[in-house]
TrEMBL record:
Primary localization: endoplasmic reticulum
Keyword Endoplasmic reticulum attributed: yes
Domain RING-type: 285-320
Xref: InterPro entries: CGRF1, Znf_RING, Znf_RING/FYVE/PHD
GO BP, one annotated term: regulation of cell cycle
GO cellular component: endoplasmic reticulum; nucleus
UniProt GO MF annotations: zinc ion binding
Species this protein is from: Dissostichus eleginoides (Patagonian toothfish)
Protein's name in the database: Cell growth regulator with RING finger domain protein 1
Transmembrane segments: 15-38
Compartments where found: Endoplasmic reticulum; Nucleus
Function: Able to inhibit growth in several cell lines.
Region ranges (Disordered): 233-281
Taxonomic superkingdom: Eukaryota
């Protein structure tokens, strides 16, 4: 019946043509007004335009100074010959090296830090880990001291490896703590825990840092990770945005196989990009390709847009994750910064 009515209206009434022309005029006028910034009814907007109207809330962030830095010195490293470490701290510190520390003991101590006494001194670490390690060696580090410190297991221990995989002992756990009580009161970060792999007779993978933890005076524990990514990494696979703070049950070195030359080249390129960013050479916004990047999106932590473009997206241009918050990227001075 409705079809017969429309056919009759189309054949005998000019109202049909008038209605079609009027509807086209209204839609065209709404599109033109919306293009020039005038408000139009929601029903005439597309889904993308509706999302762009929603503003991204600004999150207040506070920069925390990390007084600890530790790196492995180039050269041969093994369980029998030892490892050379180079700390660089803003305050006098104590470097405690625990050889053959049990995985469960270390993770239990880190969990206890969040619910019990704070692991803010070398004595607290020794009490928490004793007797679940083979050997402990300590060094006193001066403020700004960049000297190399060699740590090794005494020969009379007769330790050449830490057993088959998966292992229940970390080869080396290096802990940096503040030496002076006044410094512990002035810094929010009170300890840095670095777990290192050291090659032995059973597992000859090169020495490297497995992971690092920062411990705060409030009992928080954060895994130290890079916070910012270069905008040139858009085509690369996005990293896991979840921040792992759960205990690692076993040291399974088999899952960390030898790297191919291609993977090493990629890592070198990423390090160069991070150095360029730290030197102030900020990348351009991936959206407008004009303004400098000055917004960090949360929770994915990608720094890829400017303050003008951040309000136009609900999804990160790099990983397509939902943008819940954002904060302004500013240059910080002095010391390192925590990864969260």
């Amino acid at each position: 019946m409705a079809a017969v009515f429309l056919v009759t209206l189309y054949e005998y009434s000019p109202l049909f043509y008038i209605s079609v022309v009027s509807l086209c005029f209204v839609v065209t006028a709404a599109m033109v007004l919306g293009w020039f910034g005038f408000d139009v009814p929601v029903i005439l907007r597309s889904s993308d335009e509706t999302e762009s109207v929603l503003t991204t809330p600004e999150k207040q962030m506070v920069q925390m100074t990390n007084p600890f830095a530790l790196e492995m010195c180039p050269g041969s490293a093994s369980v029998t010959d030892g490892v050379s470490l180079r700390p660089c701290c803003l305050e006098p510190c104590v470097l405690s090296c625990f050889w053959g520390c049990e995985v469960q003991a270390l993770q239990g101590a880190l969990q206890a830090h969040q619910h019990g006494p704070r692991l803010s001194t070398p004595q607290y670490f020794q009490q928490a880990l004793h007797p679940h390690y083979h050997h402990c060696q300590s060094f006193h580090i001066g403020s700004g001291d960049r000297a190399e410190h060699h740590t090794h297991i005494p020969a009379d221990h007769r330790i050449t490896d830490f057993g088959p995989l998966p292992r229940q002992h970390y080869p080396l756990v290096a802990v940096l703590t503040l030496a002076e009580s006044e410094a512990r009161d002035s810094y929010n970060i009170v300890a840095a825990v670095t777990v290192l792999h050291v090659p032995d007779d059973r597992y000859s993978l090169s020495a490297r840092v497995l992971f690092q933890y920062l411990l705060t005076a409030q009992g928080n524990m954060y895994e130290l990770k890079p916070l910012f990514m270069s905008a040139d990494s858009v085509l690369s696979e996005p990293p896991d945005s979840e921040q792992s703070t759960q205990p690692r049950e076993a040291y399974d070195g088999a899952s960390r196989g030898e790297q191919s030359p291609e993977e090493e080249e990629v890592e070198e390129d990423e390090e160069e990009e991070e150095e360029d960013w730290s030197e102030g050479g900020g990348r351009g916004c991936v959206v407008c390709q004009n303004a400098a990047v000055n917004k960090v999106l949360l929770p994915c932590r990608h720094a890829c847009v400017c303050d003008s473009c951040v309000s136009r997206f609900q999804h990160c241009p790099i990983c397509r994750a939902f943008v819940l918050e954002a904060f302004t990227l500013t240059d910080g001075g002095g010391g390192g910064t925590a990864g969260h």
